[in-house]
Amino acid sequence: MLTLTRFCEMHQGQPANPNHEITIIKGDFSSSMPILCVPGIKAGFPSPAADYEQTGIDFNHDLIQHPNSTFYAIVRGDSMSGAGIDDGDIIVVDRDQQPENGDVIVALLNGEFTIKTFNQSHKDAGYIELIPANPRYDKIRIEKSDNFSIWGVVIWTIRHRRNLRII
Question: Which stretches of the chain are assigned E, i.e. beta strand?
Answer without folding.
Answer: 22-26, 34-37, 55-58, 70-75, 90-94, 104-109, 112-119, 127-131, 140-143, 148-158
